[in-house]
Design a protein that fits this description.
globular
Length: about 160
């Protein structure tokens, strides 16, 4: 099934909140471009909401800095179940070039559970949309209380210089 077919059968709107945990804003610009008029993902039912208390999906960009660790945990804990976390960008997935920085506490999966990784620096909106479709499938499985594998979905290929964990 193609990603757009999945989005066309979306049973209900997907409400999304974003969290910048220390990124350079490159990934944030691509997330906004995904929501903008050119890609217009709202036509499929994905809506950006201002509070995590109403969100089904959390999009995290950037590596987690020491300052943002507790804030990321708090935002995640405020979301109602079932919930899905998407990490956008190489920095959030692995720390990338900032991996050994003194002020990082690690990639996002060191802080909260991650369901979908979207690689790239910065990933294109098409990759973000593909990541959202994988998140929709996981979220629907969680809503139907079907057994869900713990396999984490990955979109895109890590860049050649990415640090292996």
């Amino acid at each position: 099934m193609k990603p757009l077919d999945i989005l066309e059968v979306l049973p209900r709107s997907l409400w999304v909140t974003t969290c910048n945990s220390g990124s350079c804003n490159g990934c944030d610009i691509e997330v906004v471009a995904t929501l903008g008029p050119r890609y217009d993902i709202e036509r499929f039912g994905m809506k950006l909401v201002g509070t995590p208390r109403h969100a089904d999906v959390m999009i995290v960009t950037g590596p987690v800095t020491r300052f943002m660790r507790e804030k990321v945990k708090r935002i995640y804990s405020q979301m109602p179940d079932p919930k899905v976390v998407i990490v956008v960008g190489n920095c959030g997935c692995s720390g990338d070039v900032f991996y050994k920085s003194y002020n990082l506490v690690g990639p996002v999966d060191n802080i909260i559970p991650v369901d979908v990784y979207v690689h790239g620096c910065a990933p294109r909106p098409e990759a973000i949309i593909e990541g959202v479709t994988k998140a929709v499938l996981k979220l629907e499985s969680l809503r139907k209380k079907e057994p869900v594998s713990n396999v984490v979905e990955t979109v895109g290929e890590p860049v050649a210089g990415e640090v292996a964990l």
